[in-house]
Amino acid sequence: MTKIGIIGCKLRWDMGCSRFSSHVNCFLACLNRKGAFEGLDNPVVVAFASCNGCPGKGRFEKAEVMKNDLKVDVIMLASCCYKPPKCVYIDQSAKDIEERLKIQVIKGTVSKEKCNCLPNFRKNTERLEFTKNFTSKFNKSKISISNGC
């Protein structure tokens, strides 16, 4: 099992990932073993947080808590940090976390080229219906952040 801590962008956190709440793209990528989760041994998201806002404040401290207190094996910096407009501090944050905490840092959670986790929606009603169906299936699967994704 690979325990994962994800740190995302506060700006996008407040807006909701791709206009979704619950940052479903990262969780779907984990659930479907897509993007950065592909190839990891039984990935489990045990922590998910945003930075404290521009200029990427608090990333290192949150990564430190994830590593030391929650015993994560990998820190992922969510894809929202890399999508336009890319956070200008994200690469330095990744370097600082990896070098100072001696932990693997993966840049991005979903496919960098295109998010393969979610279908393309023509209308907001399709997006809403997808979200309702996903939430229903996710709740029925007895999956939680603490025991799997």
Explain how this protein is built.
α4 links the parallel β3 (74-77) and β4 (104-107). With 149 residues, the chain is of the alpha/beta class. It has a 4-stranded parallel beta sheet. It has helices spanning 10-15, 24-32, 59-68, 90-101, 124-140; strands at residues 2-8, 43-50, 74-77, 104-107. The radius of gyration is 15 Å and the shape is globular. The longest helix is centred in the C-terminal third of the chain and has 17 residues, at 124-140. The relative contact order is 0.21. It contains 5 helices and 4 strands.
Question: Share of helix among residues?
Answer: 25-40%
Low-confidence stretches: 113-124, 141-149
Structural class: alpha/beta
Estimate the strand proportion. 15-25%
Q: Sheet bearing the most strands, described?
A: 4 strands, parallel
Strand order of the largest sheet: 2-1-3-4
Global shape: globular
How many H/I helices? Answer: 5
Rg calc? 15 Å
- Per DSSP E runs of 2 or more residues, the count of β-strands stands at 4
What is the element string, with H for helices and E for strands?
EHHEHEHEH
Distance separating the two termini: 11 Å
How much is the average pLDDT? 77
